[in-house]
Amino acid sequence: MRVLISGASGMIGSAVAEAARAASMDVVRLVRSRSGGNGDAILWNPADAAQPLDLARLEGIHAVVHLSGASVARRWNAAVKREIVASRVESTRALCMALARVRNRPRVLLCASGSGIYGNRGDEVLTEESTLGSGFLADTCRAWEAATRPAAEAGVRVVHLRCGIVLDRKRGALAAMLPAFRAGLGGRLGSGGQWLSWITLSDAVRAILFLVSRDESSGAFNIGSPHPVTNREFARALGEALHRPAVFPVPRFVLRIAFPEFADEGLLASQRMTPKRLTDAGFGFEHPEIGNALHALLG
Question: How large is the greatest C-alpha to C-alpha distance in the chain, in angstroms?
Fold first, then answer.
Protein backbone atom coordinates (compact mmCIF):
# COMPACT_ATOMS: atom_id res chain seq x y z
CA MET A 1 0.00 0.00 0.00
CA ARG A 2 1.25 3.48 -0.92
CA VAL A 3 0.25 6.15 1.60
CA LEU A 4 0.54 9.88 0.96
CA ILE A 5 0.97 11.94 4.15
CA SER A 6 0.76 15.71 4.47
CA GLY A 7 2.10 17.25 7.66
CA ALA A 8 4.62 14.41 7.82
CA SER A 9 7.11 16.54 9.73
CA GLY A 10 4.61 17.24 12.52
CA MET A 11 4.16 15.26 15.71
CA ILE A 12 1.32 13.07 14.45
CA GLY A 13 2.39 12.91 10.81
CA SER A 14 5.93 11.78 11.56
CA ALA A 15 4.63 9.08 13.90
CA VAL A 16 2.09 7.90 11.31
CA ALA A 17 4.84 7.74 8.68
CA GLU A 18 7.08 5.69 10.98
CA ALA A 19 4.29 3.27 11.89
CA ALA A 20 3.21 2.92 8.25
CA ARG A 21 6.76 2.04 7.20
CA ALA A 22 6.96 -0.47 10.04
CA ALA A 23 3.79 -2.05 8.61
CA SER A 24 5.54 -2.38 5.22
CA MET A 25 3.63 0.49 3.62
CA ASP A 26 5.29 2.72 1.04
CA VAL A 27 5.16 6.28 2.47
CA VAL A 28 5.13 9.35 0.23
CA ARG A 29 5.36 12.78 1.88
CA LEU A 30 3.56 15.89 0.62
CA VAL A 31 5.90 18.81 1.37
CA ARG A 32 6.06 22.56 0.76
CA SER A 33 9.81 23.11 1.04
CA ARG A 34 12.13 22.35 -1.86
CA SER A 35 14.71 21.18 0.67
CA GLY A 36 12.39 18.30 1.55
CA GLY A 37 11.00 17.70 -1.91
CA ASN A 38 13.17 14.82 -3.02
CA GLY A 39 13.23 11.05 -2.72
CA ASP A 40 9.90 9.94 -1.28
CA ALA A 41 8.38 13.45 -1.35
CA ILE A 42 6.00 15.36 -3.62
CA LEU A 43 6.53 19.13 -3.65
CA TRP A 44 3.36 21.24 -3.40
CA ASN A 45 2.40 24.62 -2.03
CA PRO A 46 -1.37 25.26 -2.29
CA ALA A 47 -0.81 28.99 -1.73
CA ASP A 48 1.53 29.24 -4.74
CA ALA A 49 -0.11 28.96 -8.15
CA ALA A 50 3.34 28.51 -9.69
CA GLN A 51 3.79 25.28 -7.74
CA PRO A 52 0.78 23.09 -8.67
CA LEU A 53 0.38 19.54 -7.51
CA ASP A 54 1.71 17.04 -10.06
CA LEU A 55 -1.28 14.78 -10.65
CA ALA A 56 0.90 12.11 -12.23
CA ARG A 57 2.69 11.69 -8.90
CA LEU A 58 -0.65 10.85 -7.27
CA GLU A 59 -1.26 7.86 -9.54
CA GLY A 60 -0.96 4.64 -7.59
CA ILE A 61 -1.54 6.23 -4.18
CA HIS A 62 -3.91 4.01 -2.19
CA ALA A 63 -4.53 6.21 0.88
CA VAL A 64 -4.06 9.88 1.78
CA VAL A 65 -3.60 11.04 5.38
CA HIS A 66 -3.98 14.83 5.37
CA LEU A 67 -2.71 16.30 8.66
CA SER A 68 -1.23 19.69 7.80
CA GLY A 69 -2.45 22.88 9.44
CA ALA A 70 -1.05 25.96 11.18
CA SER A 71 -1.00 25.93 14.99
CA VAL A 72 -4.03 27.40 16.77
CA ALA A 73 -2.32 27.60 20.19
CA ARG A 74 -1.22 31.24 20.04
CA ARG A 75 -2.55 34.78 20.19
CA TRP A 76 -5.21 35.28 17.55
CA ASN A 77 -5.62 38.31 15.34
CA ALA A 78 -7.13 38.75 11.89
CA ALA A 79 -3.95 37.65 10.10
CA VAL A 80 -3.48 34.57 12.30
CA LYS A 81 -7.09 33.55 11.78
CA ARG A 82 -6.69 33.86 8.01
CA GLU A 83 -3.59 31.67 8.19
CA ILE A 84 -5.39 29.05 10.28
CA VAL A 85 -8.31 28.88 7.86
CA ALA A 86 -6.14 28.87 4.73
CA SER A 87 -3.86 26.13 6.05
CA ARG A 88 -6.85 23.90 6.72
CA VAL A 89 -9.83 24.76 4.55
CA GLU A 90 -8.21 26.12 1.41
CA SER A 91 -5.39 23.58 1.29
CA THR A 92 -7.84 20.70 1.85
CA ARG A 93 -10.13 21.92 -0.92
CA ALA A 94 -7.21 22.26 -3.33
CA LEU A 95 -5.92 18.79 -2.47
CA CYS A 96 -9.35 17.20 -2.85
CA MET A 97 -9.96 18.88 -6.19
CA ALA A 98 -6.64 17.44 -7.34
CA LEU A 99 -7.51 13.96 -6.05
CA ALA A 100 -10.81 14.12 -7.94
CA ARG A 101 -8.90 14.65 -11.20
CA VAL A 102 -6.59 11.65 -10.76
CA ARG A 103 -7.51 8.74 -13.02
CA ASN A 104 -6.67 6.02 -10.47
CA ARG A 105 -7.82 7.80 -7.34
CA PRO A 106 -6.89 6.85 -3.78
CA ARG A 107 -9.37 4.57 -2.08
CA VAL A 108 -9.48 6.63 1.10
CA LEU A 109 -8.72 10.11 2.40
CA LEU A 110 -8.30 10.62 6.15
CA CYS A 111 -8.43 14.35 6.87
CA ALA A 112 -7.65 15.95 10.21
CA SER A 113 -10.34 17.88 12.03
CA GLY A 114 -10.64 18.69 15.73
CA SER A 115 -12.71 18.36 18.89
CA GLY A 116 -13.17 22.13 18.63
CA ILE A 117 -15.94 21.44 16.12
CA TYR A 118 -18.27 20.83 19.08
CA GLY A 119 -17.64 24.22 20.70
CA ASN A 120 -17.86 24.79 24.47
CA ARG A 121 -20.39 22.20 25.71
CA GLY A 122 -19.98 21.94 29.49
CA ASP A 123 -20.71 18.46 30.86
CA GLU A 124 -22.56 17.19 27.76
CA VAL A 125 -21.24 13.85 26.49
CA LEU A 126 -20.33 14.34 22.84
CA THR A 127 -20.44 11.58 20.21
CA GLU A 128 -20.13 11.86 16.46
CA GLU A 129 -23.92 12.30 16.30
CA SER A 130 -23.90 15.37 18.57
CA THR A 131 -24.79 18.74 17.10
CA LEU A 132 -21.88 20.94 16.13
CA GLY A 133 -20.89 24.02 18.09
CA SER A 134 -20.25 27.68 17.34
CA GLY A 135 -17.24 29.96 17.43
CA PHE A 136 -14.15 30.42 15.29
CA LEU A 137 -12.72 26.92 15.87
CA ALA A 138 -16.07 25.19 15.36
CA ASP A 139 -16.75 27.16 12.18
CA THR A 140 -13.24 26.44 10.88
CA CYS A 141 -13.55 22.71 11.54
CA ARG A 142 -16.97 22.62 9.89
CA ALA A 143 -15.58 24.30 6.77
CA TRP A 144 -12.50 22.04 6.94
CA GLU A 145 -14.64 18.92 6.78
CA ALA A 146 -16.84 20.38 4.04
CA ALA A 147 -13.73 21.09 1.94
CA THR A 148 -13.28 17.34 1.36
CA ARG A 149 -16.48 17.22 -0.71
CA PRO A 150 -14.75 17.13 -4.14
CA ALA A 151 -12.95 13.92 -3.14
CA ALA A 152 -16.10 12.33 -1.71
CA GLU A 153 -18.10 13.22 -4.82
CA ALA A 154 -15.39 11.55 -6.93
CA GLY A 155 -15.90 8.30 -5.02
CA VAL A 156 -13.06 8.52 -2.47
CA ARG A 157 -13.94 7.21 0.99
CA VAL A 158 -13.49 10.18 3.34
CA VAL A 159 -12.84 9.98 7.09
CA HIS A 160 -12.80 13.07 9.32
CA LEU A 161 -10.41 12.72 12.27
CA ARG A 162 -11.89 14.83 15.08
CA CYS A 163 -8.81 14.77 17.26
CA GLY A 164 -8.65 15.69 20.91
CA ILE A 165 -5.36 16.75 22.52
CA VAL A 166 -2.66 14.28 21.50
CA LEU A 167 -0.22 13.50 24.30
CA ASP A 168 3.49 12.87 23.77
CA ARG A 169 6.34 13.72 26.10
CA LYS A 170 8.60 15.12 23.36
CA ARG A 171 6.24 17.37 21.39
CA GLY A 172 2.87 19.04 21.63
CA ALA A 173 0.73 20.19 24.56
CA LEU A 174 2.07 17.74 27.15
CA ALA A 175 5.69 18.58 26.36
CA ALA A 176 4.88 22.28 26.80
CA MET A 177 3.39 21.61 30.25
CA LEU A 178 6.20 19.46 31.59
CA PRO A 179 8.72 22.15 32.67
CA ALA A 180 6.21 23.88 34.97
CA PHE A 181 4.85 20.64 36.39
CA ARG A 182 8.33 19.21 36.95
CA ALA A 183 9.19 22.37 38.89
CA GLY A 184 6.13 21.86 41.08
CA LEU A 185 4.43 24.92 39.60
CA GLY A 186 1.71 23.19 37.60
CA GLY A 187 -2.02 23.24 38.23
CA ARG A 188 -5.47 23.54 36.73
CA LEU A 189 -6.44 26.17 34.17
CA GLY A 190 -9.22 28.46 35.33
CA SER A 191 -11.80 26.58 37.38
CA GLY A 192 -10.46 23.24 36.12
CA GLY A 193 -13.99 22.00 35.55
CA GLN A 194 -13.75 22.03 31.76
CA TRP A 195 -13.61 18.62 30.12
CA LEU A 196 -10.53 17.61 28.18
CA SER A 197 -10.60 15.11 25.33
CA TRP A 198 -7.18 13.47 25.11
CA ILE A 199 -5.40 10.53 23.47
CA THR A 200 -1.83 9.26 23.53
CA LEU A 201 0.17 9.66 20.35
CA SER A 202 0.55 5.91 19.97
CA ASP A 203 -3.21 5.33 20.22
CA ALA A 204 -3.89 8.18 17.77
CA VAL A 205 -1.52 6.63 15.23
CA ARG A 206 -3.03 3.18 15.72
CA ALA A 207 -6.52 4.63 15.24
CA ILE A 208 -5.52 6.35 12.00
CA LEU A 209 -4.00 3.21 10.49
CA PHE A 210 -6.99 1.21 11.74
CA LEU A 211 -9.33 3.51 9.80
CA VAL A 212 -7.13 3.36 6.70
CA SER A 213 -7.75 -0.38 6.52
CA ARG A 214 -11.50 -0.42 7.24
CA ASP A 215 -13.25 -0.05 3.89
CA GLU A 216 -16.67 0.30 5.53
CA SER A 217 -15.70 3.26 7.72
CA SER A 218 -16.36 6.81 6.53
CA GLY A 219 -17.49 10.12 7.95
CA ALA A 220 -16.61 11.62 11.33
CA PHE A 221 -14.65 9.73 13.98
CA ASN A 222 -13.82 11.16 17.39
CA ILE A 223 -10.13 10.47 18.02
CA GLY A 224 -9.89 10.57 21.80
CA SER A 225 -9.79 8.29 24.81
CA PRO A 226 -13.09 6.70 25.92
CA HIS A 227 -12.43 8.36 29.29
CA PRO A 228 -12.11 12.15 28.94
CA VAL A 229 -11.17 14.00 32.13
CA THR A 230 -11.65 17.45 33.56
CA ASN A 231 -8.70 19.81 33.45
CA ARG A 232 -8.48 19.52 37.24
CA GLU A 233 -8.25 15.71 37.01
CA PHE A 234 -5.65 15.96 34.29
CA ALA A 235 -3.47 18.33 36.35
CA ARG A 236 -3.72 16.04 39.36
CA ALA A 237 -2.82 12.95 37.30
CA LEU A 238 0.15 14.72 35.71
CA GLY A 239 1.43 15.84 39.11
CA GLU A 240 1.14 12.28 40.43
CA ALA A 241 2.96 10.86 37.39
CA LEU A 242 5.84 13.31 38.02
CA HIS A 243 5.67 12.97 41.83
CA ARG A 244 5.13 16.70 42.14
CA PRO A 245 2.35 18.83 43.61
CA ALA A 246 -0.05 20.40 41.12
CA VAL A 247 -1.56 23.14 43.25
CA PHE A 248 -0.79 26.35 41.35
CA PRO A 249 -3.86 27.23 39.26
CA VAL A 250 -3.64 29.65 36.34
CA PRO A 251 -6.51 32.16 36.75
CA ARG A 252 -8.92 32.65 33.90
CA PHE A 253 -8.06 36.34 33.52
CA VAL A 254 -4.35 35.53 33.09
CA LEU A 255 -5.13 33.09 30.29
CA ARG A 256 -7.33 35.66 28.58
CA ILE A 257 -4.57 38.25 28.74
CA ALA A 258 -1.99 35.82 27.37
CA PHE A 259 -4.23 34.25 24.70
CA PRO A 260 -7.18 36.50 23.77
CA GLU A 261 -10.00 34.44 22.20
CA PHE A 262 -7.98 31.22 22.14
CA ALA A 263 -8.23 31.03 25.94
CA ASP A 264 -12.03 30.79 25.82
CA GLU A 265 -12.28 28.60 22.71
CA GLY A 266 -9.28 26.39 23.46
CA LEU A 267 -7.83 26.34 26.96
CA LEU A 268 -11.08 26.94 28.85
CA ALA A 269 -13.57 25.28 26.48
CA SER A 270 -15.21 22.06 27.68
CA GLN A 271 -15.51 19.10 25.29
CA ARG A 272 -16.46 15.78 26.86
CA MET A 273 -15.90 13.89 23.62
CA THR A 274 -16.11 10.11 23.43
CA PRO A 275 -15.01 7.86 20.51
CA LYS A 276 -18.29 5.98 20.04
CA ARG A 277 -17.84 5.11 16.36
CA LEU A 278 -14.22 4.06 16.86
CA THR A 279 -15.03 1.67 19.72
CA ASP A 280 -18.12 0.38 17.91
CA ALA A 281 -15.84 -0.46 14.97
CA GLY A 282 -13.74 -2.67 17.26
CA PHE A 283 -10.76 -0.43 17.97
CA GLY A 284 -8.99 -1.21 21.25
CA PHE A 285 -7.11 1.46 23.18
CA GLU A 286 -3.74 0.73 24.75
CA HIS A 287 -4.08 3.72 27.09
CA PRO A 288 -7.75 4.37 27.91
CA GLU A 289 -7.14 5.88 31.39
CA ILE A 290 -5.25 9.12 31.98
CA GLY A 291 -3.25 7.87 34.97
CA ASN A 292 -1.85 4.83 33.21
CA ALA A 293 -1.33 6.84 30.01
CA LEU A 294 0.79 9.47 31.74
CA HIS A 295 2.80 6.88 33.62
CA ALA A 296 3.47 5.06 30.34
CA LEU A 297 4.57 8.29 28.67
CA LEU A 298 6.66 9.64 31.54
CA GLY A 299 7.77 6.55 33.44
Answer: 58
How many structural domains are present in the chain?
Answer: 1
**Tell me: the pLDDT tens digits for 161-204?**
999 999 999 999 999 999 999 999 999 999 999 999 999 999 99
CB 268 within 8 A of CB 194: yes
E strand segments, 16-117? 26-31, 41-43, 63-66, 108-114
- Which backbone phi and psi does 157 adopt, to 5 degrees? -70, 125
What one-character-per-residue DSSP string does 108-177 give?
A: EEEEEEEGGGG---TT-EE-TTSPP--SHHHHHHHHHHHTTHHHHHTT-EEEEEEE-EEE-SSSHHHHHH
Q: How confident is the model over 121-155, as pLDDT tens digits?
A: 999 999 999 999 999 999 999 999 999 999 999 99
CATH of the domain at 71: 3.40.50.720
Q: Which domain holds residue 133?
A: 2-298
Are the CB atoms for 263 and 256 separated by under 8 Å?
A: yes
